[in-house]
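Hello,

Our lab assistant flagged a job as stuck in the queue for most of the afternoon. It eventually completed. Since we weren't sure the result was trustworthy after the delay, we are filing this so someone can double-check. Below is the sequence as submitted and the structure that was eventually returned. Let us know if re-running is recommended.
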Amino acid sequence: MFTAYILVCSDGTYHFGVTKNLNARLAYHEEGQNESSYTFTRRPIRLVHQKSFDDIRTAITYEAALKTKSNQEVAQIISGELQLDIATSAIIETSETETTSIISPASYLGNLAYFANIKPIQEIILDVNERFQKQSYRSRCTILSANGLQNLIVPVVRPNGKETLMNDILISYTEDWQKDHIKAIESAYRRAPYFEYYADELFEILQKKHEKLVDLSLELTHFLMSCFGIECKVRISQKEENSSIELKNEMYPKSRTNFQAQAYQQVLNKGDFENNLSAIDLLFNCGKNGINLID
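-- returned structure --
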């Protein structure tokens, strides 16, 4: 269960949030665990409204609807005089125009450049017929840890050696890389503003034992698109569908600095902005609306 809540601060203003553990989140605000939090200088705080949902997306939709209300309307919601109803299913309108699509390599927790390519189009086709390339974002991602940039790498098995196609790449479980990745992500982002909103669902995906790398990449891409509100179809390529050299070149860490997003606050960053990391860096630091910072 996920709970959307309203707090009244000491200055009379409201603070809205979503959490999976309400008691822990209240302690977080009451104890002032984050100096950058809205409530830090407005304590003590008081819980005045809560509503629980089965899934996080509906809870976040409810929270977003609360934020659009005037103070008077919020007071009426708190008192029970006003009921806030939200739509729990999205209606996607079809267009008579031709569908725009790109054929792109599959990526493990793709970076900002990857999602900038996806954002404006209607369909992404994951290229599974290309040869797997080592030391690329096909099987790794880059996050920002307390010690600087950190690469998270999925160990793989190549049944046909250097000639193995992406569709045939298997994930190796001889080492507990899932535990290591989850631990690294939690250590890097647990104090980020939106970590609690999305971490559980992300970790649930990472804990699954996918047989193929493309299956893991596909589910993670779906997850991130959903979090950012990107309405784009995703499918696996046919034999005649191949990604471009330009998109293939973006899949290497040496190309990371070629893309520039708008700078945003990174929870562990005390220096210059680290650009074009895995999209989870943007998600945990900025939430759903972070997608507006990339083009």
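-- support follow-up --
The delay was a queue issue, not a problem with the job. The result is valid. The chain is about 30% helix and 15% strand. The radius of gyration is 21 Å.
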